[in-house]
Amino acid sequence: MKFGIINFVFAFLILFSSAQAEPVNYEQDDAHTIVQFTWNHNRLSNMSGRFLEHEGVFELDFEKPSKSRVEFTINANSIWTGVDKLDEDMKSERLFDAANFPEIKFVSTNARKTGLERGQLAGELTIKGVTKPVMVYIDVNYNGPHIFPNVEKYKDAKLAGLTIKARVNRSDFGLGMAVPWIADEVDILTNTELVAYPDGKS
Questions:
Q1: What is the model's pLDDT at position 115?
Q2: pTM strictly above 0.90
Q3: Which of 18, 26, 70, 192 has its CA 20 to 30 A from that of 107?
Q4: For domain 23-200, is the CATH number 3.10.180.10?
């Protein structure tokens, strides 16, 4: 009987400690993170661009997503479309006004699972000084031990790969120039690899 009680207490402690576990703090792998945006031009073609400078805070709990927290900041001046004149227009006062509003920022407010490897992230997106609620959709491409555990740096490290999608109306953020000839809807696609090192190593 005593042995059974000890086992029960031990099991309870394991469950309790698991329930109290904190989200894991992941670092963004800049070399494997791409932020793209796509819009329709005059119903003729789908154009795209990228933001080259960005950083994120990813405190993730894949088992209990509601405990997760994400902040993502983009440098508006790092916009790149491959066309210099278009880059200048994008940064100008008519659109992002990057000189006065250099940061684009997303802050999560809630997260939940929607499938085995899918989730939704509610949050607030700030562009050009305007903050609006947005819903972000996440595909978890990988979540587990680092794929190179024999490399000393990655021993006991965790790895995650995410595809993150969102759709916004640019006019909501004061970027409505040339709507509706140029589409109001903009699709944002981010692919990122994240690493969590043990004991704060990096």
A1: 92
A2: no
A3: 18
A4: no
